[in-house]
Design goal:
globular
Length: 370
């Protein structure tokens, strides 16, 4: 008795269903991973910051090792150096912002007054906004003490996160030679090479992003700050510091810092100077996008601007400003892993095709004798 096997769905439908199952599983794993990071953000945040710091400080640490310095001492000196540099830069930026902050705020208020005067609708004048703000302050003034306490707790949490991140940077640098062995011990023996290659590719992507972004941020701050000083815009040093800090948020950071600089110039120096500042900001951004980014950034972190914007939006929705800062390096690491997997799959397919071609070529028919 013969039985005929009939498939319920055609081959294209079954392939589509299989891909849907794969995508649902991948989305579920990603959702669980993001949820765990949010739940344990107190521990996850210092680790991520330490990885970024380790990637940025790796060249200095390796240079100290080439100077025949012990790993522990080299890691300690690297951390001390970054504390000194970051502390000194923070002090300079803080002093600049304190000295010019009132002037910048006054200029922004004047710009807002001009905008409200020329484009504001009825009932939305600055006087109305001031009266509404005063009423809100009187209504919610009783919660000021709790707000101060909450602010102090946030500052304390940030300090604790920074100290823990510095300690982790020290241990990540000191024990970086053991990282490959530890990673291989967790991975199955047959996939050890693949896991190591993916980890190296992801770390190289993060390292390239951090070094390139820091250099580009420095160049942007110097060029825009020089232009603001030449145009005699108030708070030029503070605005240049703002450009450097926001440069770690691609595209959006440049827009925010550029908008603030243009508004300050508009309020204090007039429309013509504001146009000059806008031209300087646009010229620097064109230089960054067309020259600096392709020249400085590694090929492993070259992502489409749409992907960068989506990553920043997703990071902001998950973790606010911190998510915006971490979104691009995390996406760069994921892109590096996918690139490594794609390269290995392509190499395997080519090897299998070559082996099949050799096998077919070696099984030809023997011609008959005449």
């Amino acid at each position: 008795m013969q039985t005929t096997s009939q498939t319920l769905l055609p081959e294209p439908a079954r392939r589509f269903a299989a891909w849907c199952v794969v995508l649902l599983l991948a989305a579920g794993v990603a959702a669980v991973g993001i949820w765990l990071c949010i739940v344990f953000q107190t521990a996850v945040t210092p680790v991520l910051l330490a990885i970024l710091g380790t990637a940025l400080l790796g060249p200095l640490f390796r240079w100290l090792l080439r100077m025949k310095m012990r790993r522990g001492l080299a890691a300690a000196l690297t951390v001390v150096a970054v504390v000194a540099v970051v502390g000194g830069a923070t002090y300079i930026v803080a002093v600049a912002l304190i000295e010019t902050g009132d002037q910048i705020i006054a200029s922004l208020r004047e710009a807002a007054a001009d905008i409200a005067k020329h484009f504001g609708a009825a009932g939305t004048s600055l006087d109305d906004l001031a009266k509404n703000a005063e009423g809100l302050l009187k209504r919610f003034g009783g919660t000021a003490a709790s707000g101060v306490i909450s602010g102090l707790s946030v500052v304390g949490e940030m300090l604790a996160t920074g100290v823990l991140a510095l300690l982790l940077i020290f241990f990540f640098l000191k024990d970086s030679d053991r990282a490959v062995g530890a990673l291989r011990s967790f991975a199955p023996q047959a996939t050890g090479d693949v896991v190591e290659a993916m980890a190296r590719r992801a770390y190289e992507a993060v390292e390239g992003f951090m070094r390139g972004t820091t250099f580009v941020a420095f160049v942007d701050a110097v060029l825009i700050g020089t232009g603001l000083v030449v145009l005699d815009v108030p708070g030029a040093i503070g605005l240049a510091a703002l450009v450097f800090i926001t440069a770690y948020i691609p595209y959006l950071g440049a827009f925010l810092s550029g908008a603030v600089a243009v508004l300050v110039a508009l309020a204090d120096r007039g429309f013509a100077i504001a146009l000059w500042v806008l031209g300087i900001v646009l010229a620097v951004q064109m230089l960054e996008g067309n020259v600096l980014q392709p020249l400085v950034q590694s090929k492993t972190v070259q992502m489409h601007p749409a992907a960068v914007m989506l990553a920043i939006t997703a990071g902001a929705s998950v973790a606010g400003v911190l998510g915006m800062l971490l979104a691009v390096p995390v996406t760069a690491a994921a892109t590096g892993i996918l690139s490594e997997l794609r390269a290995r799959l392509k190499a395997r397919a080519e090897a299998e095709a070559a082996a099949a071609g050799d096998g077919a070529g070696g099984t030809g028919a023997v011609p008959e004798a005449g």
